[in-house]
Amino acid sequence: MSAPTTTPGQGNPTPEAPAATPGPPAARRRTLATRWRRDRALVLMTLPAIALLAVFAYLPMLGNIAAFQYYSPYSGFFNSPFVGLDNFARVFTNPAFLNAVLNTLMITAFQLVFFFPVPIALALLLNSVISPRVRVFIQSVVYLPHFFSWVLVVTIFQQILGGAGLISQTLRENGYSGFDLMTNPDTFLLLITLQAVWKDAGWGIIIFLAALSTVDPALHEAAASDGAGRWRRMWHITLPALRPVVILLLILRLGDSLTVGFEQLILQRDAVGAEVSEVVDTFVYYQGVVYGDWSFAAAAGLAKGLVSLVLVLGANKLAHVFGEAGVYQR
Amino acid sequence: MSAQIGDQTAPAAVTETARRTGVGPGAPQRHDDLPPTRRRRRRANGRPVWEEDPHPVGLGLKGVVLALVVLVVAFPLYTVVVTSFSTQAETLRAGGLVVIPGELTLEAYRQILSGGVVTRAAVVSVGITVVGTALSMLVSVLAAYGLSRPGSLLHTPLLFVFLITMFFSAGLIPSYLLVSGLGLIDSYWALILPTAVSAFNILILRNFFMGIDNAILDAARIDGAGEWRILLRIVMPLSGAVLAVVALFYGVGYFNAFFNAVLYINDNAKWPLQLVLRSYVLQGASLPGGADPGQAASGAVAGMPIKMAVVVLATVPILLVYPFVQRHFTKGVIFGAIKG
């Protein structure tokens, strides 16, 4: 699982990268010109993608200048006045923004407890199914919702759990009172977690199943013949096999703490109200695109981006401290 | 990294190494992939000899839980499909979604597919998906191959250009200002270009390409093949599984994208399917020219079959492709995800 190459700090900047291209010794003294002749096709191949990223990923980074201006679309970046950190001061003293941050962190924490373990449990359960046919069938069913759009998932939930939905309808027909989970702010956290589980928990198991498949059955056999029971084998063999993947995903999730299902939330914001459903991303959207306070929204967005960057680097550092590979290695 | 190539052409030695190390395409996914010597040592119920028999209660519980999981996913989809094929009267009798099929009809599909808003939106969505996926795959495969040889000229800086976008994104406001500044508001390109390159997908492709046996590539090089020819004739044919999976990721991304369209498409006539789904099904606006006006007047559940038909329509392209790509998931995704 320790992959030698994809990540920063791993790619060897010198041409003599020992593992990848075992070229002849002469290769060490190649000049820049010969290397260019040899590799120019490879460099050219990356250019279309880099051009797209330059325009649609890197150019907008410069656009964050708006966060330090009173940006107005009529004056543009060049003629809008600079105001230093004014916008950030406005952002961090804005009660609605602080509420959005709080909601975001609550959703992340709630889902860490009630969403994150579900795929692991499902994977362990599925891994113990002997019949390959049953296993493949279950897999193809539970993977499917991952490929549905959020609009679709919310629509389906509305039809099943909404006020006029299937379950309420059935309850009412039998003399009970119905309920409407879709518009109730008190249960919103539960609702979006249910939706997330329904949509993505199934897909989440794929990575754990793969980790489980790398366990050598001989380990289980040896442990069993030494008298280890089912649960002991689970504790000492199966779960340790999952540990690196669990830590990796935990890091990614923590680094993404400030990003929670944007499309999912914006679709349901009107139904339950901003009080519980406003998160940082929806806040940025409404302040900027809807209300036109571009600089204010850009400052909030930039603050979020920077904090997220720190979080992911920090989480990764933490993983290294605990002796795990993390997202990348140094 | 040990030498690995696609299963179909893997020499026995490579697969054997992979199986022993538990890494790579030849690694066992399950006990049943093991060589026959192992398989013979199983009992009739498929368990290896050393494993104790499961407790009947535990076994029963496991079955119930798994059946429940499948049911929770499948049941909503089932009722949606049944409702879309039901008559208006049937949905009124059921008070919404139909669980037990009664009177069936294709009327809802005839209405939404006979031109009008839904048909146009479906065409838009499919068009964006096809063009977008083609463009994304083209640039991604090229970039992934270009980045697949550590030690090549500028390899690390170029790789970083992609990796940085995974850790830091510019944010919504500057992206919106850029797209509107480029004059792409109400242009379909606004739904394609900003999301055309995914560093994550490129890394999945790159990891797979890097696993291809260098000996094959060297042999081709000695025979005088350039990088372009190697990519086209050797690497691509060996990478069917991962190409299919990544194309599915891109395709699903384009087809399902909803928020980009909210941002960039103001003209209703250019709406993709997800926006139509939101407005007419989720938010319950009445479908202009779609539903029969007489039905639309008859209450909240009016047009229920039509709404559900739109929902089904929004899943059809995914359901069409899914079975063909699904069997490649493990190989394609795991290669990128775990090894990456």
Features of the shown structure:
heterodimer; A: mainly alpha; 15 helices; disordered N terminus; B: mainly alpha; MetI-like fold; 2 domains; disordered C terminus
Describe the overall structure.
The complex is a heterodimer of chains A (330) and B (340). Chain A is globular and about 75 Å long. Chain A is mostly helical and 330 residues long. Helix content of chain A is 67%, strand content 0%. In chain A, helix 9 packs across helix 11. The N terminus of chain A is likely disordered. Chain A folds into 2 domains: 44 residues, no CATH class; 235 residues, MetI-like fold (Orthogonal Bundle), CATH 1.10.3720. Chain B is mainly α. Chain B is built from 17 helices and no strands. The longest helix of chain B has 30 residues. Chain B is flat, with a radius of gyration of 25 Å. The N terminus and C terminus of chain B are likely disordered. The interface between A and B is large, with 119 and 117 residues.
